[in-house]
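agent: user wants the full assembly modeled, not chains individually. Plan: 1) parse entity lines 2) check alphabet per entity 3) run joint structure prediction 4) return tokens. Steps 1-2 passed, two entities, 376 residues total. Proceeding.
--- entities ---
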Amino acid sequence: MEGGSNSKGTGLGGLFGTGGVGYSNADLAGVPLTGMSPLSPYLNLDPRYLVQDTDEFILPTGANKTRGRFELAFFTIGGCCMTGAAFGALNGLRLGLKETHNMAWSKPRNVQILNMVTRQGALWANTLGSLALLYSAFGVIIEKTRGAEDDLNTIAAGTLTGMLYKSTGGVRGIARGGIAGLTLTGLYALYNNWEHMKDSIAGQSL
Amino acid sequence: MEEYAREPCPWRIVDDCGGAFTMGAIGGGIFQAIKGFRNSPVGVNHRLRGSLTAIKTRAPQLGGSFAVWGGLFSMIDCSMVRMRGKEDPWNSITSGALTGAILAARNGPVAMVGSAAMGGILLALIEGAGILLTRFASTQFANGPQFSDDPSQLPPAPSPSPFGDYRQYQ
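--- prediction returned ---
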């Protein structure tokens, strides 16, 4: 405002170009302001409240901002189960065709392929469904005990799931399962936060 | 669980599938744990190992069967919602019966009829319990006088309210 004669006022207030003025506390009638140089003596509000880059919703009492893990658990499990069934059926079709490729088109061949499809579909659906069940259960438990919800929960739940799923295979199996779970959920967390991270890296390099 | 509302229709299928899988896997896990424990050779170590093996092999299978039931039920339910244009208990009962019939289709018509009857009756019981529960809850929260008045403070002849009885009976 005054051409920056005094460069003392830094920090958040400096963002608004009030660097040099430096109103004293007496000018502000003794109203304490938190950690900033004020915009003007007549406008004593914290400039932090002028920044609006987050969503602001008015929520009903007792409602959460987003749905928790428990509300999403059944959807996750069902989605994994159905995905597993679809991919398992495809795999069964592939295996069945490969196994019977020297048979003529006939009823036994069709039945064999169909059996393969249903068996593989059920197998994959069960496997993926129980993995998702373990993951959701761990996720809900971690969320409730920590009382917070972020990507750390995802990664921890994934690692624990892998470890428990392979827990009958000895220490080596546990380690392998844990690493697999850690990798998969870590990649998922990275993918989820990609835009956010890209922005912050770009902001740092500027 | 606070006020668990059902998902809108196409996603309800996935949700019901997952719920059924969870129910089946957890219930089957408990059941198979006990069964494996009892059917193993003597010795705590053997018994625990047998229990674990039983859970690992059988619980996901039971979950999968439940998931098929739940998913098919929900698919038929959603189709009926779409066709009839309304959601009521009859949808659930019919889709329960149809699901039972379809899943028993390879065992012959008699088994289909029996299975359909089982499914329909089961879903009718569930829906009936839900309706009864809602009624019971609504009479609990009726808008009547909330506190009993002290009889010594009452006027000699309590005149009826000019607005009639507030309580709602369904």
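agent: reporting back. The radius of gyration of chain A is 29 Å. The helical segments of chain A are 69-99, 107-146, 151-165, 170-192, 194-205.
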